[in-house]
Amino acid sequence: MSPADLDARTANRMLVLATFGFMVCFWAWSLISPLGSVFATEFGLTSIQQSLVVAIPVIVGSLGRIPVGWLTDRFGARAMFPLVSALTIPSVLFVGLAGNSYPAVLIGGVFLGLGGTSFAVGVPFVNSWFALERRGLAIGIFGAGTGGTAIAAFSTVQIADRWGRPAPFILVAVVLALYAICARLLLRNPPGRPAPTGSMWTTIIQTLARPITVQLSWLYAIAFGGFVAFSVYLPTYLTNAYHLKHSDAALRTAGFVILAVVARPLGGWLSDRIGAVRVLLVCYLGAAALAVVAALELPLMPFSTIAFLGLAAVLGAAAGAVFALVGRRVEPAKVGAVTGLVGAAGGLGGFIPPLVMGAIYGGTGHYSLGLVLLAVVSVGTAVLTWFVFGRGQKYPPAATEPLAGSDSDRIDQR
Fold this sequence. Notes:
Blueprint: H1 3-29, H2 36-43, H3 47-75, H4 77-98, H5 102-112, H6 118-129, H7 135-143, H8 148-163, H9 166-186, H10 200-209, H11 211-242, H12 246-274, H13 276-295, H14 300-329, H15 335-349, H16 352-364, H17 368-389, H18 407-412
């Protein structure tokens, strides 16, 4: 077997390990959300308090990606994946065993947010293991680890009902512990991994000052933020707009989440084949068209169902394409820092739309205006993508990935 074959097999093994770790951490990160209505009834929470219970882990996990991305650049995923997994365990057990009051669940949710930072560990790790032409698919496959959210949605309440409230939390804590041990034993940092220089805050400020960081953050805030917003708010939307039962709305939302997760690696794979810019343009313009269809509030079957499932597909694919673009435009030593900021933007971007949709529904009794706003923002994002990354505008490819011959211009314009 040639060295190249050995490297490919090692890279694929690292991808599997990283994706599984990301999925487990996201499973932990999402444990509170399925029990939100249970906590609301048990503690007598207002709608705002219930929203805060669900939002705290996501907000902390999103912001925490910024320092964790830098730490991953500095110390590597072989150290950070086991660390993040192990540090998430106490908060999981605290919520499961001691979460018998509103303040306790809030405190546990703050630390549970650590699980969400695993995204900023995996992206630079996977990016460094794969050659430029395979990064889109590889990072897309890793991104499918967001399916941990679906695992939490499908299993948490059922396990808690059958074996008691602490059961799903204990199960996840055990899986996290096993993964932390396996990750420490089996993960390998890529050879020749570049390390950043300078302090964390200097690196973060310098990274944020780069225009490409802000531009990629906006693209991801619309793509992944849109996915998060729908996964959080779609049950409420379907209940209010179409008078579905909560269980029916939850199942339809789970279908939305699964389709978006499946579409993410497809977006990365297509980015490798035809270019990330083309994929993003199709996705954002497709999202605009589908949002207009949804805004018409046509019958749920088949029109609105097709519109929302289409939105899941294009938003998931766009999320994969954004990080294919990160892999091509950001030098390896900075991928962790950029991923932290871009990932934070995506997570935070998911909590503005539900607030807007709720305010619009409260004022008008309909959601149409909110969906029209999504269409307008999506068109604007497509225009931004074209003018910044298309039209011959060129960011240099990653510093350690020289592109030869006539392919250089073609790939740069992706």
